[in-house]
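Lab notebook: predicted structure, single chain.

Context: the supervisor wants predicted structures on file for every construct in the current expression panel, including those that have not yet been purified. This is the next one on the list. No modifications to the sequence; it matches the entry in the shared construct table.
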Amino acid sequence: MAIFLFAFLLSLIFIYLSLGVIKQRGKNKIALGTGSNDELTKWVRAQANFTEYTPWAVLLLLLAEFSGAHKIEIYVVGSLLLLGRVLHAYSMTHHEKYINGILQAKPKFRVIGMQLTFIAILYCAIRLFTLYVIDLVEYF
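Prediction complete. Output recorded below exactly as produced.
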């Protein structure tokens, strides 16, 4: 199953982001919240964004694969998702600069990362809805 590869790789990104949060907490001696520390805040938000979007996308990708999507289809959509999550995490943690929580430049990599993530989610959702409609039509 192709989804196993993407679940594994996305898990590694999650661990990387989590370790980044832990490192920033230790470095800044902040155990709870972000203490208005811009560096910790961006790591926390990168990790949170990852946990907000990735499980849903992986679930949809899994359902698409179980519903009979071609393996190449899963690899393409999974690759879009993976690239989107990498770009988003990289942008937030290494590329963007903040001063008092205010972004200092346009976050193009983050925008592209979210666009790729949304494309993957939307593709899987439409595919599953289409299968539902086909099944419904065949039922009647």
